[in-house]
Design goal:
alpha/beta; about 425 residues; 12 helices; about 25% helix
């Protein structure tokens, strides 16, 4: 792996076979409804194992906000509903089966803010929205200071969002207009997707092609910083087009343009599939022989998984590395207990934040747990994925992402007290 340095951001290079220009339509035989990455949600099941459900039908809702539903990405039969202690959602597995149909939602009040909010929450769009600070879904009655639409994705091996919305200009424009009813602030489109728009609260902001120029947290920090009192939402351009179709037809398109990539594949592929798709079936027959690791997400910030995560549009397949000999327990304990390595200023580290914030002071504040300094430098606009490139540059193996999450959780606990 190598890193090429530019004036604004980096281009991490990860080995992967080229993808065919053709986009294949793939619907997996199994799919799962899972909470957004990192979320722990108490839910009320709305179906039982063995029930036949339509695509888009609600299978669970939040216990303390029953208006917010999780919906089936495919039509089929409920095979397994897994809940953690406290009825926290783990996964709802669905086997594809004909006869389920497609759920249709009432859209007669979608031209009003309250009606649109109810439509998005009931149709299962709410988990596709992500708030800053802290991450996760917005509260049921939250109004953001701004909404950022990500029509750019500069993570390595990511599919271009403009390809996902190609030919859907009307749906995309309709979705943007709908989002203006969810905020009194601006809706900012980051990237080259620019349909004909006539709205004084929709802004188009071009972004560079190097990472993290297309990272939502960096865009938010530069354009509309989030604070405790002024949350900011972000959403992918493809999901905005889906909102536009939902408002028009009452049916929510369950589609994801996904790039299958990684060094453990014999060929790359671009596929149009659905949320919660089975990664094993998506990569069947194109994975190289031998042990490998299936990841939902990019090689920088993805995680090992069986199902495509709600917001992910990449699947990364890497060779499984041989585990080396384990050190003596005393050496391991002493190594873990030493003070972390110092952050050494470098051009690559500066560019890992795209020049949007002072990298070294920010990372030192993270390491020291200095929430005041980290907040002043932009912490509340960022999530783990936004520091993943710095983690990669410093070869920290996830340490920076863990430090950022720990500090965000501490601030959230103190704010709620």
């Amino acid at each position: 792996m190598a890193v090429a340095i530019s004036r604004a951001g980096l281009s991490p290079v990860f080995s992967s076979p080229p993808a065919s220009p053709d986009i294949a339509e793939v619907q997996t035989e199994e799919a799962a409804v899972r909470p957004p990455v990192g979320a722990s949600l108490h839910v009320t099941p709305l179906v039982s194992e063995g029930d036949l459900v339509a695509q888009g039908a609600a299978v669970a809702c939040l216990r303390h906000a029953p208006d917010i539903c999780f919906t089936a990405p495919i039509a089929g039969r409920i095979a397994r509903m897994s809940l953690l202690p406290g009825k926290k959602l783990s996964e709802v597995v669905i086997f594809r089966e004909a006869g389920g149909g497609v759920e249709r939602h009432a859209t007669d009040r979608a031209d009003m803010a309250g009606g649109l909010r109810a439509l998005l929450q009931g149709a299962g769009v709410w988990p596709w929205l992500r708030r800053r600070p802290f991450g996760g879904m917005p509260a049921r009655d939250e109004t953001p200071a701004a909404i950022v639409v990500m029509a750019s994705d500069t993570r390595p091996l990511a599919p271009a969002p403009q390809l996902a919305v190609e030919g859907r200009d009307e749906d995309f424009a309709r979705g943007l207009h709908a989002l203006t009813r969810m905020t009194e602030g601006v809706v900012i489109v980051c990237g080259p997707v620019a349909p004909d728009l006539d709205h004084d609260r929709i802004r188009i902001v071009p972004r560079g092609g190097r990472h993290p120029q297309g990272s939502a947290g960096i865009c938010i920090h530069q354009l509309c910083p989030a604070t405790l009192d002024n949350p900011v939402w972000d959403i992918h351009a493809e999901d905005v087009a889906a909102i536009g179709a939902l408002v028009e037809t009452g049916q929510l398109p369950m589609t994801r343009l996904v790039h299958l990539a990684g060094a453990a594949l014999r060929e790359g592929r671009m596929v149009r599939t659905h949320p919660g798709a089975d990664l094993r079936q998506l990569t069947q027959r194109i994975a190289l022989p031998g042990p490998h690791v299936l990841m939902s997400g990019s090689p920088l910030d993805g995680h090992v998984a069986q199902w495509l995560a709600p917001r992910h549009r990449q699947v990364t397949v890497l060779p499984r590395e041989e585990a080396g000999p384990r050190p003596h327990w005393l050496i391991a304990a002493l190594t873990r207990s030493v003070i972390g390595r110092p952050v050494i200023p470098s051009a690559a580290l500066t560019q890992a934040f795209g020049g949007a914030l002072p990298a070294v002071p920010f990372l030192r504040a993270l390491g020291a747990g200095d929430e005041e300094t980290a907040t002043r430098l932009g912490l509340l606009s960022l999530l783990e994925e936004d520091v993943a490139l710095a983690d990669y540059v410093l070869a920290e193996g996830g340490t920076l992402m863990a430090q950022l999450r720990a500090l965000l959780d501490r601030i959230r606990t103190e704010a709620a007290a």
